[in-house]
Write a structure and sequence with these properties.
Blueprint lengths: L1 H16 L9 H81 L25 E3 L1 H12 L2 H26 L7 E2 L3 E3 L1 H4 L8 E9 L4 E7 L13 E8 L28 H10 L11 H19 L5 E5 L7 E6 L4 E11 L6 E3 L17 E4 L1 H12 L8 H19 L6 H14 L10 H18 L20 H4 L8 H5 L1 H16 L1 H6 L10 E3 L6
Parallel strand pairs: 4-9
Antiparallel strand pairs: 1-12, 2-4, 3-4, 5-6, 6-11, 7-8, 8-9, 9-10, 10-11
Helix pairs in contact: 4-7, 9-10, 9-11, 9-14, 10-11
Amino acid sequence: MPMGIFRVCLVVITAIVNHPLLFPKENGTVLENTEEIIQKMKEREEILRLEKLRLEQEIEGQEAAQKVLEKAAKVVEDVKEEKVQWDMWTALSMVIFLLIELWRQDFQEGNWQDTGADEDDMAVLGKAFKGVAFPDKAILASFYEKRILGTTGDMARMREMVEGFADDLLEALRSVCNRDADMEVEDCMGVGSMYENWRVRKPFVCDLIVPFAPPEPYCFRSQIWCSGDSFPPDEQGYGTIKVCRGDEDETGCICDKTKLGEDMLCLLHSQGNTTRLSSEMEDLLCFKNTQYLDADQVMKWFQIAVTKAWNKISHKYEFDLSFSLLDSPGALKIKFRSGKSIAFNLTPVVQYENSDVYFISHFPRNCLAADLPSSTHWFLTFAVYERRFIQMISKMLPANACHVSCLQILSFLHGKQCSLTGPSGLTNYHLKTVLLHLLQTRPSQDWAPEKLEARLQDMLKFLEKCLHEKKLYHFFIGNGKVPAELGFPIIFQRAEPLNLFRLFVLHRDVYRKTIDTFHEMLRNTSALINEYMVHIPHVHTNGIQKESV
């Protein structure tokens, strides 16, 4: 019985365990799920393989690009190294070429400077001219007395006549000008060789400068090259002149310094008055659309004003007045009925601040200044201080000192030589500058009348040294030893020295012509002087000797 019950229970349990509803047949779907998974895995593997290929291609492309860049950088670096080396050699070659060219031009006709001289003989004439004959003291003194001294009286009479006429002409000019709109003309001043008593060559020409100022409420504000602002080398010695209203700040209108408010407008700088302001500036002789004084406009205004003034007073004189040079505003010529004529220059200038330095609009032909950089650039002239310095030094020198005689003889020799061989880059102003330097450095007793020959040789030696170095500095600019009695502006004493021979550095042809003319003058010195001394017996010359101490 128990055994039977056990068997029945075992059968029941077996039946329950094997019943399909209790344990479904999972193994049948496993096969199906596995195949699906395998298929997805294959697809995923294919995707990964394609991605791998793409990444490998990108990596290869980047590596190739990197190699190209590295190669290009290497090529550029090589090119730069080659270029640097080439530029270095090119620059070095150019420097060597320039040095050779300068040496060749300086020495192609022989070294005219005695390089073997000691320090004391630095200014001695070059070895090519050691045998040049030079007139002795007696001949020089006689030549000066007979050829030059006699012209002093003629100059004095001419100065008196020209000054009187110029004063009358300027008075008439003031009367024909509109005092409310035209420039105000001041009294003229005499400057230059005629008023320093060393003019020797005819025709005598008086140089007069005429300061002028703008009408009220305007004023001039000047800016010079040494005032702190940078000026190019070709503008050294020049300045500009700005026309401003008296109540206008140096940097602009007072409206720039004042808060006017939203409902207030500057009447000077309003848009409606811009055209009127520009027209006013042109009426005040300014360059177009600027406030800077135009030298060309000044020239036209002055010529017209002088013409009107002469028309007003011409009936008082028995001669004609005309402009002798078209490129100089005040180059005038008086023509008498007898055929004789007198030339003089009446040049408008602008005073620099409260000094006797002036901005000059135009220089007479063949004078110091070269072409102006522009018509708004004005050259500065120190002629008043130069005249004052010579007068002051003359009072300290021995009686009948030879300083003016030296300058007169040298000016005569140079002018005579230029009339034979043509003009050179050397001017009378250069010769006067040489004298001014020697007057400052030489003791007063060295200018005694009996030392005329020695001082004339000193001027020639100093001039040759300056020509050799291409350096002749302006006497006043950069000279801290100017006597305080002159009242010379300190700003010019502190400026960098101005080289008057800068032209020779830039133009080799002018320099060579000047050197040739100077050397020819030395060779012809005795002949040029003896030409006027044929009636003097026992004319003899001696070689140039250095003055014994």
